[in-house]
Amino acid sequence: MATDAQRPFAIVLGCSDSRTPVEIVFDAGFGELFVIRIAGNIVAPSVVGSIEFAVSQFGSRLVVVMGHTRCGAVGATVKAIETGLGPESKNIRSITDRIAPHIQGLVRPGDLDGIAREAVRVNVRASADHLRHGSRIIEELVAGGRVAVVGAEYELETGAVHFFDGVP
Length: 168
Hints:
This protein has 168 residues and is of the alpha/beta class. 44% of the residues lie in helices and 17% in strands. The chain is built from 6 helices and 5 strands, in the order E-H-E-H-E-H-H-H-H-E-E. The protein has helices at 22-25, 45-58, 72-83, 90-103, 112-133, 136-143; strands at residues 10-14, 33-37, 62-68, 148-154, 161-165. Strands 2-1-3-4-5 form a 5-stranded mixed sheet. Helix 3 crosses helix 4. The longest helix has 22 residues, at 112-133.
């Protein structure tokens, strides 16, 4: 029931894409997941603060950074790198500018489709790494074995989730 206390076993940083409903993807009910959704599953200060809050308040032991195939934010970033033309909106640019440094080396003219999936995974790895090392609170919990930060990709085509980063 929605009025029960929160006891999320995991924190999920996912994309805001409407095709990636985290609770449905993981078949979770009320209070089982602490979900943060932002385009491109990027890590910004408010996202880090939200995750710090959840690990501190709820004792959640797992943080999942979940990207997805055909991500529009990653695609827009690839296009901006290839063309040299960033988004017209400074707000959208604040998203693509967080993704660009991680995928810049992948972009080759004329091969946008060939790198799309790799770019999504590189972006997930970068976000997971940022969480592991960009917060004293989370870094100490990871070092102490009390929290794991893992990366995953939701495959829109099949509905499968593939874990590929930080998983033993």
